[in-house]
Amino acid sequence: MWILRFLNGPLAGQTVPLTKHSTLIGRAPNCDIKVASASISKEHARIEVFDDKLIISDAGSRNGTFLNGVQVRSSKAKSGDKIALHEIFAEVQKVPDNWAAGRFPQPGYGGHRGNVAYQYQVPPPQAYSVHAPSRAPMEDPSAPMPLGAHLPKLATFASEYMERVVLPGIYRLPEMFEFKWVLAGFMAIFILLVTSLSTIPLIRILKASLEEESQQHALTLATTLARVNRPFLVGGQETGASVEIAASRPGVSKAFLISNMDGNIIAPATQAGSYPDVPFVHEARKNTHEAVKQVDDSTVVAMVPITVYNQDSGVHAVTHWAVVVYDMSSLAVDDGQVLSLFITTLFISLLLGLILFYFLYKIVEQPVRSLNVQLDSALKDGGETVAITYQFPAMQLLAANISSALTRAMNGGEGNQAQRALEHDRNREVTNLVELMGFAAFGVRADDLSIAAANQAF
C-alpha cells in the first residue's frame, strides 16, 4: 500500500494511508485530505493509486503542484518522491499491505470527520465527551471498586516498571556481550529452570506410586501370613505358628502374629509374650477388618484379621492378627537415581535447545543481513528502496525509513529540494511581473528563450 507523510505545515509529522483509488487534497470540505493553509487551493491536487504506480495530478491550483521540485500537471511518482503543494511538503512511500494494521485508530471522531489526515490520528480528549440529556446518578464513594477496574492500572504499572527498571538492564547485556551469546544464555537459563522444575513433580508422582505399591505389597504379605497360620490357630496349636514366610521377603522389617484378646505376640517364638511397639497395631485392633497405613516416610504397616467360628454365638470372631511392617526404602528412589534422572533430562533438553537456538538465531540474523546487502547494493548502484518480507512491523518500519533516507540522499536532501523548487518555480513570478506592466509585455525563459508568460495587452 501507499502512504503520504507530511513533512511540514499544519499536518507535519502525520502519515496518511492512501486507501482510496483517488484522493483529493485541498481546503474544501469535500476533500479527502484537508490542509488548513492559505497557500493551498480549495482543490489543490489529486493522487490516484494503482496496483504498481502512483499518479500525482494538479487539480487546477493557483500555486501549482510540484514533484521533486518540478511543477507537474500529471506525473507518475515512485516511493520516496517529494510532493510540494506550494510551501507544504510531503513524501510518498510504498509499504507492505499489513504495515498500517493496528497502527491507526478507527476514523470519524468529532469535528475531523471526513478528513483522512485527521481520521488516522489519535483524537483529542474533548472528542470523546458525551453530553447526557439528564443528570447521571452519583456513585457511592464507599462502594468497593470491581476487580476489573484495577486491571488497567496494574497493567500500566507493570509496563512502566518493566520499561524503567527491568528492561534497561536487559538491554545492557547485548552491549556487554555478543548478541548470540546473550540469546544462548537466556535459552540455557530457561532449559535449566524448566528441567529443574519438571523434576520436582516427577519425583512426587514416583513417590506416590511407590507408596501405593508398597501398601499393596505389605497387605498381600499379611494376607498370606494369616492364611498359612490360620489352621494352627483355629486348632489351638499356637506353638506351630510361624512368620518365616513373610519375614524372609525383601523389605519386610518385622512380621508377627498377635492375640486379639490382650495384644501380646504369639509368633515369632523369640518375641512371644511381649507387645509390639507399633502404635497403629493397637489402633487397628479396635476394628474387625484388614487395615494398612503408612506410619512414616519409609514404613508401612499392614494388618489382616484371623477369624474363627464361635459355636456359642454362631458368628465368626477375630482371635488373632497377622501383622507385617514393611520398609519402603528398598523400593524408594535414592538421591543418586534422582541426580541421574536430572542429568539425563538436562542433557536431552540441551541438545534440543541447541537445535532451537540455531534456527532462532538464523531467523533473527536473516532480516538484518538482508537489509545490509540491499543497503550496500543501493549505495553502490544508486537504488532508493529496501524491502523486508518478514511479518515484523518494527523491521518493516525500519526498512521504510531507510528507503526514505536513501531517497533523500539520492535527491540531495530535503533542503536542497526546497531550494530547487524555488529555483524552478519562475512561472508564477514571471506572470506577476508582466501583469504589473501597463503595456504589452511578455516574459522569456533564459535557458531556451521560450515565452513563459504574457499579459492581456500583448
> Total helix count?
9
In order across it, which strands form the biggest sheet?
A: 2-1-11-10-7-8
Low-confidence stretches: 105-114, 118-137, 417-422
Mean pLDDT: 79
Helix-strand pattern? EEEEEEEEEEEHHHHEEHEEEHHHHEE
Tell me about the largest β-sheet.
Answer: 6 strands, antiparallel
β-strand percent reads 15-25%
Number of strands: 18
How far apart lie the N and C ends?
A: 49 Å
Helix fraction bin: 40-55%
Please give the CATH architecture of the domain at 2-124: Sandwich
Tell me the name of the CATH class of the domain at 2-124. Answer: Mainly Beta
Radius of gyration: 45 Å
Shape: rod-shaped
Concise synopsis of the structure shown:
This protein has nine helices and 18 strands.
Care to describe what's here?
- The chain is built from 9 helices and 18 strands.
- With 458 residues, it is of the alpha+beta class.
- Among the domains are: 2-124, Tumour Suppressor Smad4 (Sandwich), CATH 2.60.200; 215-330, Beta-Lactamase (2-Layer Sandwich).
- The protein has a 6-stranded antiparallel β-sheet, covered by helices on one side.
- β17 and β18 (451-454) form a beta hairpin.
- The longest helix is centred in the middle third of the chain and has 56 residues, at 179-234.
- The two termini are 49 Å apart.
Task: List key phrases describing it.
9 helices; alpha+beta; five-stranded mixed sheet; six-stranded antiparallel sheet; 41% helix; rod-shaped; Beta-Lactamase; 458 residues; 20% strand; Tumour Suppressor Smad4
